[in-house]
User: What shape does this take?
Amino acid sequence: MKYWRKPLDVERIKVPRGKVYLIEERCKGCNFCIEFCPVGVLAASEGFNAKGYHPPYPQNEEACTNCGLCEVICPEFAIYSLPRDGKEQEPHE
Amino acid sequence: MSQVEKTTVVPLKHPRESLLREERLPHIWCSGCGIGTALNCFIGALERSGLPLDKVVIVSGIGCTGRAAGYIKLDSFHTTHGRAIPFATGLKLANPELKVVVFSGDGDLIAIGGNHFIHAARRNIDMTVICVNNFNYGMTGGQVGPTTPAMAKTATSPYGNSEHPFNLPYLAAASGAVYVARWTTLHVRRLERSLTEALLKEGFSFVEVISPCPVYFDRMNRLGEGLDMMRFYRDSSEIAHGSDPRKADIELRGKIIVGKFIDMEKPTYLDFQQEIQARMEGEPL
Amino acid sequence: MSERILRGEFFMSGDIACAEGALSAGCRFFAGYPITPATEIAERMAERMPQVGGIYIQMEDEIASMSAVLGASWGGLRAMTATSGPGFSLMMENLGLGIMTETPSVLVNVQRGGPSTGLPTLVGQGDMMQARWGTHGVYEIIALSPTSPQEFFDLTVRAFNLAEKYRTPVLVMADEIVGHMSERVVIPEEVPYFPRRKPNFSPGEYPSFQPDEDLIPPMANAGEGYHIHVTGLTHDERGYPATDEFTQERLVRRLVEKIRGHKKDIIMLEEKGVEGAEVVVCSYGISARVSLWAVELARREGIKAGVLKLLTVWPFPEERVREVASKVKAFVVPEINYGQIALEVERSVCGKAEVIPVSHMGGALYKPEDILKAIRKAAR
Assistant: This one.
């Protein structure tokens, strides 16, 4: 990030980093998360899910700050975010 | 020939799913409908409130919003059309330890249920009533309702609605509710906070949640998709805490006043009953 | 607070006896609305409920009253409401909800002259078919009918026990005369108490509407951690809506059979002189009282007459009636309506005996002579 003047606490304050997880099959393509993500992480994907909707995909994953807005605004409980560092929840065995 | 081992993948779990009957998902609500968002905020509010969840009971009526009771993983009752509030009254008075929440729609609570709504508010029964207002009767195909704005088109007002709608915050406040707030499904953070306050408030608390209805009301009035309505809420809602609920009327395509209108204290029905019980102790028959 | 329950001999009206019967049976929630001639039940409850630690609430209408009763039952209390014809009609939808959700509850109808506003202060028995068929859809119902204040007390107690045992709303179909007449009522030290069947499994282990062998599921109340879902929609054993014909067949058949299959336990009759009779007067409510005297007069005239008093009107005791029909010449069915239970008698009798209804539109009681005339005609 470019600063005009370096903030005094820039070493101390860490901007949270998040990772978006998508339960694709639940998505109904309402686009709320894409529109209202404050930092524009998401965009509609080209592909379809089984119901024929275009689920979102993280086109700008780096920008995600784990604010959790997508998690609460999604009517389908199809998307959420978790902190990127620390325990990651990957689909696992 | 080498065998490729199939790895089992543990499915992803949404953080708020623990309060949902996930075997019932995906739910029946349309793409762009705000009821899911309202439910999402409500679950967040339940978690924030710290209430013992085994004592929380959801009561709903008939209609799209009424189906929410079937998706929440708590004691839930899907009752007859308009009668969620008196049912909830019986539950609460029979077991005051329960935290009773009514989660239903504008048609169910305010048309057929209107009488019960004003009386429960008047009695100040300790319950939280969440009314998702999408300005029509969604489940049955988008008919006119008591909150449909004047001149709006619906399935049973094809030439425009000839009636004035209720102003729900005004109605609740006039009936004696001790907590009255209105938010839209866009204001997710504030809605969640308001629902938390309403849950923890003693007495009749009422939260109206304005929601899109993309398949019926919004389409019939050429208001766009769910996303268009959300953008409209962003551009045309005005947060005015403490403002006069009389001024919170909603016109078609008009400004929406949101915020917390009323937050006051008043003895509840059970408070009076407790006073009477205390007098009974030691009194001869 | 148990010392606040009445015990002993009293001179009280039917309505008061009903209220006291409910209290003795453990009812601790009453939601109602004033309506002649049931208002006295509400007023007595308003006075007595706080004394025994229960709740009385006067709701805004009868619809709300029945809703609140169902809610209170799920909250864990024995709950009741009392009304008359116009209120009975209003309560029908929620009676259906109670049946569909298998909610134990008691609904008292102190019948008056109808239809519509009718005769608020005078007797009628015109709601008997409505008791059976008043709410929409397929179901079976239990309805009891007292003939005196003592029976009003006893049958209200029985109604609560049947409601809990069969997990259903139970109707007590009284009438204005039984409700308003005053007589000796004996309230015993203790009355029979059938407790609610609770699940013997932990939450999550078992579907909440899975019936036991007798077709009745155990009932977990709200707030006990079972996370039940209760809906008026056709539902499966988990309680979840399942609107298809197979679930409908399974569920609705069970709701009917759980009552029909236990008729022996549910049906209560009183017979006087039926053995060896030529004419049997089949009656219920206040009409049964007059019938007893009419039959006595008939016997004095040498007619072999008997009385079959229906304390349980629904499910209708068709087996016993059919049995009696094969041995008698005729049934006389006096009721203060234009022939309702008479139709059931006719149906059960299947032509084996004559059925003579004695009709009175309402507003007054039969004189014994009116019934005696019919008995004489039947004996010929």
In short: The mean pLDDT of chain B is 94. Chain B touches chain A at residues 7-12, 14-17, 20, 25-27, 29-37, 39-41, 44, 185-186, 188-189, 192, 225-227, 230-231 (CB under 8 Å).
